Amino acid sequence: MKMRKKIIMDVDTGSDDAIALALAMSDPQIDLLGICTVNGNLEVALTTDNTLRVVECCQAQERVKVYRGCEYPLVCTLQKGTGQYGIIPRRESEVTERGVHRKNLPLPAPVAKPQEESAVCWMIRTLLESEGDITVVAVGPLTNLAAAMRADGRILAKIREIIVMGGGHERSGLCSAAAEFNVWCDPEAMEIVLQSGCPLTMVPLDATYHAKMGQAEAKTIAAIGTPQAKLVSDLIGQRIEGYKNGYGADSATEGVPVHDALAVCAVLYPQVLQNVKRCNMHVDLGKGYAYGRTVIDTRDCEHSEAANVSFAMGADRELFVNWVMDTLGRKA
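RESULT FIELD:
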């Protein structure tokens, strides 16, 4: 019998995190050990609340526990005078009800509460007690993981692999002219993870924009009829509306990326990531216009540093969409 893949999800649950979580809890090939929440798309109180809503939607509250994580980035809250989002935790007043991410997911308020143990402490304990067979799937800012690495370096040898949704190369700017959102929210945390020596796969914007989903897929998913399928369908629709509001009417013509779900798919089907380059990557920490930009070195010369990531430049959309449909369809 094929062994289930043990994973820890680290999320800042808005819309694409919710889709990723629903799929992780629906695929029997995945053993979801727990979910850590962090400040990012929303402040951590809201990302935790939304995560609990998804767990209860998937009727997984008895087997999947939620751990509240870091409220602030590691360093950048100490930098004053910038006025930029990402420097401080996102607050309710900054969340638009017309955007890609909204204050509350379209689900009932959760009955369950997060666990008393903090996400960082639980992550350290779980990894240390493991046999080195856990993959960390980080689809938000990397504050929790970086804090855990700094708190107890013994976990580095216990991590099987880290899969990060974040960064970009040819498609890099999203929340700024230079930086992708998850990295921009905590650039120093990303750099700590890059320097950890752990096996690391990057699922950047270059890949996620090759795996878009649109109204046709949303309609097919809705027809499955389960609560989690309805949630995924509704959130794809919300993302399409949010992209139109934020980037113009033509921005969602070919569908929209559901970034974080591609990272979960890559746990089971690494081949979904295409044109994967082994290269060296760092993050710009200079506090200027490029603060938070991921910089990859694709050179093969004596001046290049040793490769520290596998960086995906593309994705197999057909494989990804089929996996989403199959996974949600199993619950029909």
